[in-house]
Structures are given as C-alpha cells and as structure tokens.
Design a protein that fits this description.
The protein has a single domain, classed as TIM Barrel, CATH 3.20.20. The protein is about 45% helix and about 20% strand.
Length: about 250
C-alpha cells in the first residue's frame, strides 16, 4: 500500500475537515502517513495526531524558516517528544536560502544541533534544502555521517542525488514529478534506483497535476505513483510495493 512519508495534516488548511479527510484517505489504499513537524508547536501537533490515528507516525523538528527564536530549551522539548513511541524521525530540518528569512549561520547552527539530536536519539532525519545545495551537502558530510534519512522534495542535480544515495539517503518524490517543467526531477527518477525513492505529498502544498495549485492530500499520491511507474517503465504496483518497503526500512517499522 502507499506510504506518505511527508505530510502536514496538523496544518490549518485541514482544520475544517481533517478527521473526515483522514478517514477517506485510510480507506482508499493509503496505509500510513508520517506527519512532519516544522516548529516545536507543530511537532507537538504531529505527535498528538499520531496518538489519535493508528496509521499516522510523527517526525519532530524545526524548519529552517522557524529558527529565529529557537533555543536550547526547544532542543530539550524535541528530545522529549522524540521519545514518544510513534515518533520515527527528526525533521523537517535543514537550510532554506530561498526565502532568506533567517541568517545562514543561524540556520546552520540549528541544523547541526538537530542532526546531533537525531544521532543521539538514533532516529533518521528529514532534510529540507532549498537553494542551499553546497552548504547542505557540506554539513551532511561532516555532521550527518552514519545517519539515515530523506532528502525531502529533492530539487538539485542528478549528480548530487547520486551522491546522497551513495551516502545511504532516500530521495523524496512528490507532486512536482508530474509537472511539465520538472525535467530535472524526471531524469533523477529515471536514473536512481527505485530502492532509493520514497513517496511524499508535503500536503497541503505541491499538489500533482491535474490538481496543481489546490490543496494537496495523500489521496493524490496515485498520480505520483503513475508518473514514477511511467518514467521507470514498470507497473504502479511495483512502485507502491517498493516505496512502502523503503519507508518501513527508513523508519524501522
């Protein structure tokens, strides 16, 4: 069955119909979802969702755009949350130079602190990296050695994707692979092993074609599956089976 490895159902976009939608999702071929924190507050919400739904797991972490007011007390809170039974990863963490909301040095500091936390807690990491390819790779090589994880919503070169795969990381593939202008990601999906790909939505963001611009949900993942299957010349069933296996291996489930 389909495993959505990166979603944000704690987001306000789902406040009006969250439970109804999740019920529909889990009766339509989606086996599991990892709800991913982007702040201390949303990490707590992700954990709460994982306690309410047997099919939902949680990741806890602070997104680079939310690091401005981060403190060591927040690291302690994340450490406590990471001990919850259904917390399977630290994330999403990383660097974002696109919005440039926070200083690069500050982002790097809290990225490294959360990588250290993942190592301490023996958890995989979920990496957010936007327009920060070189710095992310440098930090991952120095501070991410021995960790497992996902490069979420991958947007860099094929060469770098191969390097991450060689390091033991998975490449997260979502709705972008269905976009007409996503030639680079399509090439990466064609070239890297299916054993190194996991499915994700990043919902409510990045809905696949033909729903681009609308609220995304795990219900649309079959469109991503079909795109991957077509690019690789294999069946949708093979994509679903292998990516679920990859997700369970990643999260030690």
């Amino acid at each position: 069955m389909i495993f959505d490895t990166h979603a944000h159902y704690d987001d306000d976009a789902f406040d009006e119909d969250r439970d109804t939608l999740l019920g529909e999702i889990f009766s339509s071929g989606i086996c599991c979802i990892t709800d991913v924190g982007a702040s201390v507050k949303s990490s707590k919400s992700a954990v709460a969702l994982s306690k309410k739904w047997s099919q939902i797991y949680a990741a806890v972490g602070v997104h680079p755009d939310s690091t401005a007011d981060m403190t060591e007390e927040d690291i302690e809170t994340l450490r406590s949350l990471a001990q919850e039974k259904k917390v399977v990863a630290i994330g999403e963490i990383g660097l974002d130079y696109y919005w440039d909301k926070e200083g690069h040095d500050l982002q790097k500091h809290w990225f490294i602190r959360q990588l250290d936390l993942a190592r301490e807690m023996n958890k995989p990491v979920m990496i957010h990296s936007r327009e920060a390819a070189a710095d992310t790779m440098e930090i991952m090589k120095e501070h991410g050695k021995g960790l497992k994880g996902v490069i979420h919503c991958y947007s860099y070169s094929l060469e770098m994707a191969r390097e991450y795969v060689k390091m033991g990381y998975y490449i997260g593939v979502g709705g972008v692979v269905t976009f007409k202008n996503s030639k680079k990601l399509k090439e990466i999906v064609e070239e890297i092993p299916l054993e190194s790909i996991v499915l994700e939505t990043d919902c409510p963001y990045l809905a696949p074609t033909p729903f681009r611009g609308k609220r995304n949900s795990s219900l649309y993942l079959p469109y991503v599956v079909e795109a991957i299957a077509e690019l690789k010349g294999i069946s949708a069933e093979q994509v679903i089976e292998q990516t679920e296996k990859n997700a369970r291996n990643l999260y030690q489930l």
